[in-house]
Amino acid sequence: MTRKLKLTAIGNSTGVVLPRELLEKLRVQRGDELMVLETPDGITLTPFDPELARQMEVAERIMREDRDLLRKLAE
């Protein structure tokens, strides 16, 4: 699916309106939360999953704390 979306002012913030078809594909509705993941290919939107959010926090902490060790393992 390729679609152009327009950014709009929402108070002092900026938002984007997601079309109904996209909400259906994501299986979310008004009031639900989305998770934004930065990937090598760009940005991915997924329904918010508290367990995945916890796992991502742990992974990011490990990558920060053990950066040098992970770099050596990658060599």
What global shape is seen? Answer: elongated
In the sheet with the most strands, the strands line up as: 1-2
Here the CATH topology equals Pemi-like Protein 1, Chain: D
What is the distance, rounded to the nearest whole angstrom, between the alpha carbons of the first and last residues? 38 Å
Q: Provide the CATH top-level class.
A: Mainly Beta
Number of DSSP-assigned strands? 4
Under the CATH scheme, the architecture is: Ribbon
Number of helices: 3
Average of the residue pLDDT scores:
88
Radius of gyration: 17 Å
> What's the number of domains?
1
Spans of 5+ residues with little confidence (pLDDT < 50)? none
**What structural class is derived from the secondary structure elements?**
alpha+beta
Most strands sheet: 2 strands, antiparallel
Strand portion, in percent?
25-35%
**What is the helix content?**
40-55%
